[in-house]
Amino acid sequence: MSKKLTITSIKKSKGEKLLVMITAYDALFAKLVSENADIILVGDSLNMSFAGKSDTISATLEQMIYHTNAVCNGAPDSFVICDMPFGTYIDKESALKNAIEVFQKTSADSVKIEGGADKAEVVKYLCDNGIAVCGHIGLLPQSVRSEGGYKVKGKTNAEQLQLIEDAEAIEAAGAFCIVIEGVKAEVAAAVATAVKIPVIGIGAGANVDGQVLVFSDMLGLFEAFTPKFVKKYLDGASLVKDAIKEYADEVKTRAFPKEEHTY
Ligand code: KIV
Questions:
Q1: Does a structural domain hold residue 256?
Q2: Within a domain: residue 100?
Q3: Domain CATH number, residue 43
Q4: Which of 47, 50, 83, 217 to mutate to test the pocket of ligand 1 (most atoms within 8 A of CB)?
Q5: In the prediction, which pLDDT does 115 show?
Q6: Is 181 a catalytic residue?
Q7: What is the 3-state secondary structure (H, E, C) of the chain?
């Protein structure tokens, strides 16, 4: 990556270039992805692929701050977004207190919060108080329990209108970009057309302003399940397991270490 993006350059990219966002949870992978990602998202998905939980609900602010620091250390020249975990932005005062903690304890450039028009007041309060906000509409992983599963959105006329209203409300509240997840492609495209800020899709088709994937999904490292929208660019789990097996075999036969690995 050449120059670190800012919320201004991200907003300006709309219609000019497609944005590449990838998650990372540690310094090692942040450095690796930073060469080709415009934006690194420290997603609360880390609670699943990193902490081994079945959903994102139990991720804590402390956990997000820890991982965001690691990512900022590994990719100091990248634009980094820290996901606000479940329960940390239920009203505008607690949202601001928690987002300030993220900004003071890490060098994250922005926070991300899930929700549409219902969260516009919170988004506005954060933006008015110096916190850059990325919205997240459509399928909301933090609502998995209250909605009884991961539900693709935009299937009905009413849902399509709601998504457009959500995006417009988040934009009017001051967000600089919006992640749209698990939405029918044509509806996501209509949402992207309705607002002037970039709309970055995940499971939302190609006609939006950029894409985001979870790094452990796209590298084939996360084996528990693979959502339909994930393309595996690497068979990471097999490669890692093969390498570990080779190491184990060599340890057991004393083929490792060799002369060149020995003092
Ligand atoms: O937590 C996360 O990784 C996310 C992406 C799915 C957008 O929010």
A1: yes
A2: yes
A3: 3.20.20.60
A4: 83
A5: 98
A6: yes
A7: CCCCCCHHHHHHCCCCCCEEEEECCCHHHHHHHHCCCCEEEECCCHHHHCCCCCCCCCCCHHHHHHHHHHHHHHCCCCEEEEECCCCCCCCHHHHHHHHHHHHHHCCCCEEEEEECHHHHHHHHHHHHCCCCEEEEEECCHHHCCCCCCCCCECCCHHHHHHHHHHHHHHHHHCCCEEEEECECHHHHHHHHHHCCCCEEEECCCCCCCEEEECHHHHCCCCCCCCCCCCCCCCCHHHHHHHHHHHHHHHHHCCCCCCHHHCC
Summarize the confidence of residues 28-33 as an average pLDDT: 98
21 lines ligand 1 (CB under 6 A): no
pLDDT per residue over 161-191, tens digit each?
Answer: 999 999 999 999 999 999 999 999 999 999 9
pLDDT tens profile 100-145: 999 999 999 999 999 999 999 999 999 999 999 999 999 999 999 9
Point out the catalytic residue in the list 181, 186, 250, 260: 181
Q: Is the CB of 133 under 6 A from ligand 1?
A: no
Model confidence pTM above 0.85: yes
Res 145: pLDDT: 96
Instruction: Show the domain range for 262.
Output: 236-263
- In the reported structure, the alpha carbon of residue 133 is separated from the centroid of ligand 1 by a whole-number distance in angstroms of 14
